Structures are given as C-alpha cells and as structure tokens.
Amino acid sequence: MGSSDKKKREKKKDFNKAKLKVGKAKAKAANFTDTSFKSKCWSSLISLLLIDTLANYIPAIVVNQHTLAALDGVDLVGLFKQHLNQAINSKSDKLRQEALVQLTKDLSSKPIFNPVGVPNLLTKLLPLITDSVANVRTNFLKLLRALPPSDVAPHVEKILMYIRGGMTHLSTDIRSDTLSVLEWLIEVCPDETVSCPGGWLKTLNSFSSMLGWNPSVASTLSVKGWTSATKTSLNKVSKKNGEAQAKQITILAKFLEAGFRPETPLPYDEQRYWDSIYRMPTIPNPFAYLNLWGAQRDEDGEMYPDRISRVQVFERKWRAAIKTGVMGAKQEGGVIGRAASVLDKVLRTSAAADGEGVRKMVVEEQETVEEVEEVEA
Amino acid sequence: MPKRKVAALEKVDADLVSLQYKIRRDPKSYAQEFYDQWLAYDAQRQIFISSPSSASSEDNKKFHDLVDLIAHCADLYPDVTAPYYDQLKELLTQHHAVLNPDLREKVVGSLSLLRRKDVIDSTSLLTTLFPILISTPSKSLRSLLYTKIISDLRESNSKATNHKLNRTIQTVLHNLVTSDRTSTKGMWACRITRELWRRQIWTDARPCDVMKEACLSDNEKVVVGGVRFFLGGDKEREEMEDDSSDEEIDVKKVKHQGTINKKTKKRQRVMEKAMEKIKKQERKKHAPHPLNFSALHLIHDPQGFAEQLFQKHLQNTKCKFSLDNKLLVLQLVTRLVGLHKLTIISLYPWFTKYLTPKQPSVTSFLASLAQATHNHVPPDAIEPLVIKIANEFVSEASAAEVASAGINSIREVALRQPLCMSETLLQDLVMYQKSKDKGVVMAAKGGDMGLKSGEVKRLKFGEEQVESGIEGIELLEKYKEEQRLKKLAEKGEDADGDAKMEDEDEDGFNSDEWEVASNDSDSSTGWINVEHSDDEDEGPPAAKKQRRDSSAAPDLISDEAMAAAAEANRISKLAMTTILTPADLAKLAELRREAQLDKMTGNVSKRRQELINKHIEDGVTADDIELPAQIGKKSTKEERVAMAKDGKPGREEHKSTQAIRKSKKEAEGKSSTNKEKARKKNFLMTVGKAKAKHKRSLVDTKKRLTAHIARSKSGGRRRNGMN
Predict the structure, then answer these.
(1) Which stretches within B342-437 are classed as H helix?
(2) CB-CB under 8 Å, A229 with B29
(3) Is the ipTM of this complex over 0.90?
(4) Where are the domains of chain A?
(5) Between chains, do A234 and B32 touch, taking CB under 8 Å as contact?
(6) Is there a contact between B10 and A233 if contact means CB atoms under 8 Å apart?
(7) Given CB atoms, is A212 within the 8 Å cutoff of chain B?
(8) Which residue in A100, B56, B125, B706 has its CB near the most CB atoms, within 10 A?
C-alpha cells in the first residue's frame, strides 16, 4: 500500500505545474544546457596538433605534462599552492602525505616545476620535520631529496635550526627521522652544514644531548658519589633504541667527517681573483662571517668557516666528552660498537691530520689503553 | 599499515605538561630531558628570530609551549637557564609588535613567573615591561602589562615597603613625564601613580612630585590626569579603604552554622578562613591609623606650582584646552591658593572676564573664586569682582537661579575675606531677604548674618587671630565651678552670700563665655563662621541678657571689654595655676564632645550639619553655589518616582510583596516554615488521612478533640507515645 502511494506521488510529480513567483527567476528546464561560457584556451586536441607542428619548427621546445596541462587551461600554479597549503594546514595526515607526494612529483619533473621558489617552499614546509605522523615525515624527506642541491645551499642555516629542534624532540621517532634529514643535508651540502652560524657547535650540542654524552648536564646535576645518573626513560637501552643510537653515532661520525674534511685549495685563477675584488658577489650574504646586521652571537652560535677553527673549538670543548662517550659505546659492542668504531676512526684521522692533535692523541691513546686494561683487570 | 603500539612511558612522555610535572618532582633525574628541551627551545627561538614576522602558527605554538616549560622549571636549573631572562627580554623588546598575541602573552607571563620564583628581581622585570607598555600600539598588550606592573608593585610592597624599588619606579615615571612634555606617554605615569596612591602603596611626596610634573605637561590629557589626581585622588583612597573594610563576617552566624552543618574538612577550612579574616580585621581596627597626608599637602613649593599652573594653562592665551579641562585646572589652582593661603594677585583680575551669567558653567567659576579667597588676599583685589558679581547677577530683573547663585557666591567670598564688602553693598544684599523666591531668600539670609554681627569686621587686613589656651578649658572651668557650688550648697547656709556672689559671677561669665567661644570658633576656619552666626541665632537669650545688663547698668558697658580681658586671663590661669589630672583631661574631652553634640542636635538644619561636617580641605564646588536655587524648586514626577523607589526591592514583574520576600528568602538559602511545608505537601499524601477522618466514629472524634485540648494546655506539642 505504502509503495503504491509513493509511486502515485512520484507519477504525479511529473505533471505538477511549476508555480511562478514574483521576483524569482523561472525554474530551469531539466534538459537545459548552459551555452554562455567562453573558451579562453585551446582544447587539448587542438593543442596537441599545434605542439606537434611547433615541435617540428622549434626543436628546442620541451613538451611535458606541465606544458600540456597549462595548455589545457588547468591552473597549475594554483594547484601547486593548494598542495602546499594542504601539506601544512590539513588536519588529516593522509591529505598532508598525498599533498607532499604531489609536490615531490612536481619538483622532480623535468624541467622542475616550482612556481613559489625554494626559499618559500622551505619556509612553509620545514615545520613538517617534527610532524607527528611518520609517513608525513618520510614523504617530506623524499621531497627534500628532490630539491636541487644548489638551491638548498643558501638555506642550510635555517634547515639546521629545524633539525636541531627535531633532534631534541620528545618523541624518539621524530628524533631519528630528523637525523635522516641531517644525513641528507650533509650529503647535499657538507661545507655549508658545518660552517654556517651555529652549525658546528650547536649541532654538536644537540648530538651530545641526544646521546647523553653531555658534560654540561653532568655539571648541573652535581652528583656526588661513584654512581652515575641513571639513564631515564628516553634513553632506555633496548634493541630498538640500540639501533637508534647506532644511527645517531653513525651520523655524528658523518657530521664530524664533514667538519674535519681537509680543504683543497682552489687553483689560482686570475679572473676569479679580480672578480672577488671588483665584481658583485654571486652568493647571498657574502660577508656573513662579519655578522654586520644580525644579533650578537655567542660562542655556540658563532660561525666556524674553516677547518682549523672547527678543529680548535672541537678540541677545546668536545673531544674529551665525545671520547669518553665513544669508549662507552665501544664497550657495548654490537651495532653500537661498530658505529662507535667508525666514529673513533673519524676522530683519529682528524687528529692525525693535525700535528698537535696527533701528539694529544697519542697521550690519550695511552690513557685509554690503561683504562681498558684496568677495566679488564 | 597497522598502528604501531606505543609503550606506555613513551606515550606519556610525549607531552610537555607531564614532562614538566616530572621535572618539577625530580629535577635531578630529569636533568637530561630538561637539557634536551632547553636545546629545543633554543632552536625554536632562533627559528623565530630568523623571521619574526612570518613565523608559522605551528612554530609559534611549539615555541609557546617550550617557553612555558622553561619558565616553570627555570628555578631548578639556574646554570642552564641563566640566559633565559635576557633572551625573553630581548624577544619582547625587539619583537613585541610582530609577536603572535598568545605567544606574547606567554612571554610576559613567563617573565612575571620568573619574578615570582625569585629568579629575577622586581626592578629588572619592571624595567623590561615598562618601556613596552609605553611604546606598544596593541591595546591588549598594554592592559596586560599594566596589570602585571601594578600587581608586581603591590606584591613587592605587601610585606614591607620596598623603598628602593619604589624610588626606582618613581624616578622612571618622573623621567617619563619630564622627558617629553608634549607626548601622551605621561598618561601611563599618571595611571600607575594614581592606582598605587589609591591602594596606599605610595603615600609619600615623590608620587605627588610625579603628578605635579604631569600637571605642568603640555599635553592636555596628561595635564587632566594630573589635575584629577590632586582633586580626587585622596577621596578615591578613602573610598577604597572603606570598601575593603566593608565585607564584614558575622561571627555569630559562622559559629552557629558550624554547630548545625555537617562537619566536613572543607567546611572546617572555610570556617578557619573566616576566623582568620575576622582576626585580621580586628588587628586592622586596633592598628594605629596610618598617617596619610593628602596629596595637596605633600606638594613641594605650592606657591611656585600654583603660579606655574596658572600662567601656563590659564593665563596663557595660546593654551587651547577645552573649557572643562581649563575649569579643572582652575579648580586645582584655586584650591591650592585657598588651602596654602598663597598669593597670586594676577589670578583675581583674570576672573573678571568670566563672571557674567552668560558664561558657560559660570557657577564653577564662582566656586573657584570663593575657593581662591582667604584672609591674606588684599580686599582691593576682590572688591571689583564682588561688585561685578553684584551688578551682573544680583538684580530684581535677573532670574532667581542667577540671583541666588550670585548672592551665594558673594557670601562665600565674604566669609573668607570680609573686608571686601562695602556697607552699601551689604545693605543691598540684605534687602533680598524679602524676595519672593525661596532660593534667593535662603542665599541672602545665609549671607548677611556672618557680616552683620560686625565682629568679624573688627579684624584688620593682615591681622591674624591667634588661638590661645586649651580648647574647651572654659567648659571644664564652668563644670568645676558648678561642682564647687553644689558642695557649698550641701555644706549649709553659711555660704549663702558667697553663693549669691558666685551666681552673679557665673552670669557674667556665661555671657562672656559665649563671646570667647565664638572667638575661638572664628579663628579656626572660615567655615565655622557660619556656625558662629548660627550660635547667635540660637542664643538670643544670652544676647538679650547682655543687652539687659547694659540697659540696667549703663556704667558697666565701658567696662565690658576690660571684664572680657580679665575673664580671659582668669581662664588661662586655670591651665597655668593648676595641673590638669588625667581625670580632668578625660572630663574635658567629654565636655567638648557634649558641646559638639549640642551644636549638632540642637535646632540645626541639615545644611548646617553638613557644613559642620565639611572639612576645610574640601573646596567649594559648583554644587555649593547652585544649592540655594534648588530649594524652592519643585521636583518633577520622574524624580519623585525615583525617590520613592529608592531603597526598595526591585520589582521586574508584577508580584506581591510576600512573593518577593519569599523569593528573597529562598535566594538567601534560608529554610521554610512548617506552615509552608504543610501547604506545599503533595495532595496524594494527605488524602488518606483526610478520608480516614471522615470515617471516624463519634467516640473517636471526641477522643481526638479532648486530646487536642489537653495538648494545647500542656504546651501544644505531641509527646512520644501520645496523640
């Protein structure tokens, strides 16, 4: 009964007369077709034909999906920006992740499609280093890898700030993912990483804090007696943590290697010599080491632009602490021990390259040997 | 991908709040964690500083949380967090304009938290916040900083006055006002000083000095702020004091509630708190009253200040203040002149221009003129003004309000400097007593009396009446005399002749005493002149007696003055010849109080009482001048309705008085009566009993009734086991 009623009503509906109302437009018919639009672009078929013909005449033109889409009338710049916004602001992690994937695709296309420029892109996306979702972080790293190294170099200082923030984050996962970012940065532009303001000592600070090799914390604790401070929850030694620590040590070794890498003197070039005196410099902020406009820097935040200064400050502030840390890590053995021995090697080579360091090294070696013997005894 | 299981500890550790809790509980074990967060804070700070204006919301939030964490734990790791204060200070001073509001608030809050944890001292906190308060364009930040500054000053002065800090801040405020006189920045100095003055945290001369400088500023707003402080700051302070003592706790009620209510820990705590408060109030009551001078008295060099104010803001034709503000300045100047008896001759001619009935708010000018008059003002300076007022305001043709205001103001001026009146003018004014308008009559009546007595005129210009002896000593003497007479009367008839003599003596003494007393009251203030004229009103019998005396014994008149002098001598002798015992002094105080009470309760009008209560320091206001004009006026219906409604419970809807009372009772949480309970009882509960009543047998009914009678005889209550 009910269904028949319904059917009746539905049937009736077709024959209902539409009521006309004053001041309102007439209802559109069901089969109405809107013909008022005006095409501003060529349709894809025409464009393809056109490009074919053009390509015949101008062989240099590169046809990829972007040019095609642009010719189709899709607002690519808008789309890119939308993805960018989504990657930062979207509440859903899936959306963020997908947006990052899209951006990566755009950046890795040939030629690179990046309407906002690398600086803007980085400023917007860098907070994602400490995103709470692991997938977003890995995708972000992929995006970073897609960036051309030459464009990244001027922004190393800024990236390092975020990396340092992530390295001391509460969550261990974020810490380890941040290390991957640092690893990438060392690969891409090693010199800038260790020589930018705060890049050397502050990053070392974060490393030591991560590994728990920090002498300054011990001094604040002022623990007396023979026991050391218990390692608290975040530095628990478990299998997973062990791997994490091994990774930390490995990347610290890479970092130090980058810092201690001997500089190869550039061959004399007369043109370059005169350019450096009379031409406008081509790199941004060429007198950064003078720190003319920035806030005053302390020792940690200072620039250490050359190898010698880096080595000196490392000897003074960190070698002892890292040395003891390495000793401890070596004794643990396993993955950590292996990583520690790599680090140890880096330390040795750095010292070997330095005359004074060698002598020191020998003395320390003897000491450590004695210590080991004592431990064994 | 399946969700990764998170270990419980890790999960909890992942938020800063719980980490903060742990750090605070066990700072030693969590030093490493704190150091990590310190590094994170440092990194985040650098991110922020590298681009303060374009920091993303994500970064802002992270930074906000880290700043919060560090601030709460800063006292636990002083070594690590040593640069924290400087960093916050730098952040706030350099970037307060671009900081995200939440973050900004957090930074300010963290700074004051550091202060509360004693990581930094008040001076450094205030010197950080103060420059921002002055320079920031954000209203919300300003109000935040203002409250923080005031609360910190209060806090650091709560246990003992922190003179060092106060001096520093006062110097800062002083410099702020004096450094740039044209800017509105001085407003903040005014606001802070006024607030602290109101709270009695600053009570010495230095804040007055700041306000003095504010009054001499070039900026209108700042000037008005300063002037208002002097005119109303002390009253505000008194009101604040009254307010704070208002919340009194009923001890009885609290104790009674303690016996009835269920005894819980919370109730006990509340009770203890209440008792503590009561004790505090008691202590406050018994504490010696703090000797707080009014701001007007604490001004250094009032003459110079008044002159400068007058020249800068009133006499100066280039000064473009609005009339209201000018009037405020004028009030302050004249008040200073009256209070400190200053001489600014050029002030009086300046008034001439404004003393016309057409001048807006002329009553304020008139009041100011009265305020500016005192017995050291040369009569020549005021006389033209009085004549002008008489000519412009007081005539049969002018409106009643105008005439009464004119007469009243002339009266007020003449009370203070009687020499400014000429005989003819006085006579003219006296004639207005016969006017038809009540206000004018009142003004005229008030005016002539003090002057008619003639006594006041006896003083020459520049002559001072010096008070001598002890106030009320004559009362004591009289009392002693009476006591002696009583004793003599008890002793017997022997001293009859003596007694008669004493009687005569006393008579003479009485009449003289009246004069002396009046002299006394004259000398103290101009105000009490009115009161004195009152005495004359009340005391026709004494005056008559005097007259009778003079008519009966004409030869005595010439000696009267001599007798008065002798009397004065005799009285002063009492104080000199005898040593007043504590009992005497107590009696003296009592007599004085009685005499005062007599004055108050005797046939004294409300207005007179007000005048008696009014302190000399309260200046003359426009209301005082306008008052007589109000007397004859009929009030409008609205006014009458408002008057009738005043003090009665609000009646939003139409409701009976009972209903209002009941709802009020309920709102107060009071219980209902048995009758009310019975009335409200559910009908179904009562219906059974009612039905049963119908079914009772006659015998039963009788039993009930007799029981009822018996019960009512024995107090009307049902006992256990009885009906």
Answers:
(1) 347-351, 362-372, 379-393, 400-416, 423-431
(2) yes
(3) no
(4) 163-216+238-261+300-377
(5) yes
(6) yes
(7) yes
(8) A100
